[in-house]
Amino acid sequence: MALSLTLPTIQNWSCHNCGGCCRQHAIEVTEEEWQRILSQGWTEQDGTPTGNALFEWHAGPPWAKRYRLAHQADGACVFLNEQGLCRIHAKFGEAAKPLPCRIYPYAFHPAGKKVTVSLRFSCPSVVANRGRTMSQNADEIKRLARAVVPDGYEKMPPPLISARERVDWPDALRFVEAIDASLATPGVPIALKLKRTLFWLNLVEQARFEKLSGARLTEFLDLVRQAADDELPNETGSSAEPSAVARVQFRLLVAQYARKDTAADLSAGWRGRWMLFRAATRFARGTGNVPSLQSIFREVPFGSLEQPFGFPAECEELWTRYFRVKVQGLHFCGAAYYGIPIVEGFQSLALIFPATHWIARWLAASRDRTALLPEDVAQGLAIADHHHGYSPIFGTLGFRSRVRTLAQLGEIPKLIDWYTRAEVEPHTNPKRL
Ligand code: SF4
Prior knowledge:
Number of strands: 6
Distance between the termini: 58 Å
Bound molecules: iron/sulfur cluster
Number of helices: 17
Helix content: 40-55%
């Protein structure tokens, strides 16, 4: 199959064998992969279980069970060795692993006659932009794309623009290109780029496009982008605090982004669900201590995370790259994101910015700091992006209505400002909590 791939050329990546993905993800296997792994003849001398104990039932009814690779007590895959390396890879080579292990951290999304490629920022090497360029990785990416992109992908419908508006693929991609262009504006802080994009997408949401196509649509998009630049000329930083309603909705959203769901967590059954429910109740109240959702977090007062922690200037590059990779790769709307329209998908994507900064504050406070370091933001983004587009709860009506409520109340720009504000110079004079 000849595929026309659009690569995220602003991003570098190579695997640095951290083993993180092998501790976080449930690896579902097909019947063919099951048989292949059995035929590899794993024994206890290899440090793995044997035979069918290599697999666990993780989804589907008893008559159509779906299996994943079994995991160790800490949630790591049974094939991950003590050095953090994959035993299948070491013994039989990369091609012998299940397909999801080979694909990660890439994601492939049909875009009309093309296929766009995005990356998952749950991988620390993606966050750090470490490794080979996408052009250097192109042959490998093409091989992987052939293995996952279904025949007839060209017939997949484009994402909706808003709840009521659908256009054809070339016009849908004009919206995507306009968002990318807004995010690429040189010399503009990422917070302002996000707020401008949210502003003009709000105008898009109120427009009708049945008579607007091709060059006229491009002209319209240029106009609304200009209106956003005029309305929000520079980064003054909003002094408006998010409302009480917005803070409750936002904390509940953050709780979803900050949780851990390794295979071990998902196997915790009713006990695990009860603990999550209790944690959600405390996040909704927002008083007392933040319940520690992962071992890397300490219980710190909710109020302490509302103090200004600043925004490390080094993170501008990371954030611009993150949003552009997600947008260019259509990793925020349509089939890649729970079938959600472009405008709502971007609102959801923009919320990952304050959500990550809230998580980064929690990481900093857990280490007795009150100013963010770039590594807090990098780690916070890896935690948050693990869920973005992958945890089913993000596509539920409840989660979507949370995003819509924040958007309709005009609270997303306030949250962006509130969770990146500084009263002291970042990295200096950190007050103890
Ligand atoms: S099979 Fe190998 S690459 Fe895949 S999750 Fe297990 S250890 Fe990691």
